[in-house]
Amino acid sequence: MSLLKRATLVQKLILSYAAMTVFTVAALGNAIMGLYALNRVADSIVSSDLVAITTAGKLRDSLLAQEGYLRKFIILNGSEFRTLFDNRDQEIRKSLDLLKGSGQNRQLPEVYRQYRDFRDGAGILFQGGNVDQKAVTTAADRTLAALDGIIADRNRQLTEKMAEADRSRMETVRLTLLLSFAGFIFAISVAGFFAFNIYRSITKLKKATHRIAAGDFDFDPQIPSSDEFGELAHDFTSMAAKLKLLEEVSLDASPLTRLPGNIAIERSLNRRLKGGESFALCYVDLDNFKSYNDRYGYVPASDIIKMTGEIIYDAVKKHGDDSDFVGHIGGDDFVMIIGSDKITAVCDTVIQEFTTGIKGYYSQEDLAAGSINGVDRYGVPREFPIMTISIAALDCRKGDYASAADIARAAAEIKDQVKVAPGSNYFIHRR
Question: pTM (2 decimals)?
Fold first, then answer.
């Protein structure tokens, strides 16, 4: 104390700045350690937990698809279901390898064992052998149960890591504020500004973690890339982009139109039914497509399907919004899921554009005649008019339908009624 009293102003300033430096270094060291801990947790989540959860979910979807192909094979005895089953088997093998490399998964050996039993039993059924079908389906169910166990374990681990990160964040903020306040007692505004920026960045990162974990892969934490928080935010953005790509790859898109297929259509319907939304399902079908295919061949017929998909997609994009959906069931059948108030505008646009575009796929002679000669499905020669398009639109209100299957059946019934009328037209069914 006596030495302090005898110190000059410069010495006191030096001592003051020395004390500030000590507290500043301590505060910075604590902040960096906290950032390192948060970054380590984030890296663990990105490289292990989220990969395991996403891969296990993809495995589950693939296994359900395999089980469906097997059931269809048992009923229809079609060789194409064996091919689809084998394709899914290759996907599952790759996913199992990825899941194996994502860290410790207690139930992974059970998944391998039960899936091997399911695959072997399915192979015997595909070859016409005698095997207990119930045992095969039981193996599939046990595989699904083991996958659900992996997902549950990883979700629990993810929750624990997030809680630990949250505790680390709070401890880092508290100690940083304390050291900063002690060191910069006469410059509290600077210390407060520093602490506020740290708190805001950590809060944004926490929010980004929850949003990405919930499936919002387009969320941007909006943190500048000039510091460690910015680098961490960049890692989150890259992680979200990769997860979104994985989700898009898993969709059963049509190779011809690039539109989502039956699985995505069913998911879209179930999501709207679960949310109690009002919407319209439009079932689109081409009239006299088979006769055209018989006369002109599959190449121009495929071009017509591709053109139809583009027309439908552009019409929905023009009159709809980002929540609307366009899917390709297969062949010349398409689906639009749009707002009920957009049915007329979208259907009119589709019919108008199709009526104009289809003329380019017929010869001048057939256009002049207004029809082509062909044979119907019963082998009877007859004339078929120029191809038209029919749209059966269901205005689905809350409580009208219990499931996607109910909607599909209702749409199929209405479609048959619409196709009876000549020319391109649409019909709106409301309960």
Answer: 0.46
